[in-house]
Amino acid sequence: MKITTLNINTPEGRQRRADLRNRFTEEGDGGCREAVAAILARIRREGDAAVLDYCRRFDSPVMTLDTLRVSAEEFALAEREVDDPFRQTLRLAAERVRVFHERELEDSWMLTRDDGTITGRMVRPVDSAGLYVPGGKEGSTPLVSSVLMNGIPAQIAGVGRRVMVTPPNREGRVNPALLVAAREIGIDEVYKIGSAWAIAALAFGTESVPAVDVIVGPGNQYVAEAKRQVMGRVRIDMLAGPSEVLIVADDTAQAAFVAADMLAQAEHDPQALAMVITTSESLAGAIVRELELQLPQLPRADIARTALNERGLILLADSLEQAIELANEIAIEHLELQIAEPWQWLPKIRHAGAIFLGSWTPEAAGDYVAGPNHVLPTMGTARIASALGVETFLKKSSIISYSRQALEADGNHIRRLAALEGLTAHGNSVAIRLGQR
């Protein structure tokens, strides 16, 4: 394994620092973009027939329109196929996610003035939300946590219709753990479709799959590109890139912990980004040795090795101040502070998707049972974006109510601004009410 180690104050280190600041990728490669555009156009034009054709070609050749939606019998079978320990863990995770996200629910509010003017904001959920959950192919893992992280905030927001889409296996079945998780949080509308055609069906609607207002959930480059192309017609959670972790570590950090957390991120994807900024050169060397020790023990060692060889990075900083400032510049998805006094440095953090404080807080806790959402901004977008939450499924309407007295008081101001902008009818709409024509 080859992992790059650089001092951030060298010319090469400064160049890498600039590259990290500018790592945002707006679009996938041209071939993916064109392929997805063709899929979206065909689904919009042909509906169910196109969805079924793609599903048969790429996922399950036995799929029919009658079996596209998960049946009550399939839900019942799934319940019998999972064990009690899984149920216990599922319920614990669901409760933690629910309790955390209940604090995010926003209230409508009103302001009143003495002249009778009422203004305010009315908060309402969208009518429907689509949840994309990867799965299907042999060897793929059921992302149960994605069901919870996407479905529970929508439930708390009050979304009336929540629909899950997930690709089936060759036999046309969905992993039972995913179905049990969906049922646990009250979702019973599940379709066995995946990739870009699933996003298209959710965005445009077909004869069998009514369109939704919001689409959330992780996926491969085709899913991400499809979400990018339908954005605006529907709301999406975010344009997500490969998963990322940045660990700020001082000489109190344990190399084994740091290496383990780098590997936890690297095993996601060959393009995953696992980085460390440390003030200790000896720790940097110990981390590399730990990576070489732990890596061969992983079932997904090939994926993790590729990620570390191609994108893994250890940066040496002169001080914690310099390390924290660089962390803010990078605006990482997952930021770990494996330092002596993490809470002391927390106020200095301005840009991160999620922050993990102390050596006993692995990023994996946030992925599964801590409670905060694990759908987080990547590629530096933590500068401007937040984790998925209840607000993803809410919209706000402004409320304005004038009395005659209030309009008389504001009328000249409205007319003056309308005249300045050359919008005569705007001014007349006030004048006609006040008999000033």
UniProtKB/TrEMBL annotation:
UniProt xrefs under InterPro entries: Ald_DH/histidinol_DH, Histidinol_DH_CS, Histidinol_DH_monofunct, Hstdl_DH
Gene3D superfamilies on file: 1.20.5.1300, Nitrogenase molybdenum iron protein domain
SUPFAM superfamilies: ALDH-like
Domain of life, per lineage: Bacteria
Keyword field: Amino-acid biosynthesis, Histidine biosynthesis, Metal-binding, NAD, Oxidoreductase, Zinc
Cofactor: Zn(2+)
Record PROSITE patterns: HISOL_DEHYDROGENASE
One cellular component (GO) term of this entry: cytosol
GO biological process, one term: L-histidine biosynthetic process
GO molecular function: histidinol dehydrogenase activity; NAD binding; zinc ion binding
Cofactor note: Binds 1 zinc ion per subunit.
Its job: Catalyzes the sequential NAD-dependent oxidations of L-histidinol to L-histidinaldehyde and then to L-histidine.
Family the UniProt entry places it in: Belongs to the histidinol dehydrogenase family.
Name under which the protein is recorded: Histidinol dehydrogenase
Originating organism: Desulfobulbus propionicus (strain ATCC 33891 / DSM 2032 / VKM B-1956 / 1pr3)
Phylogenetic classification of the source organism: Bacteria, Pseudomonadati, Thermodesulfobacteriota, Desulfobulbia, Desulfobulbales
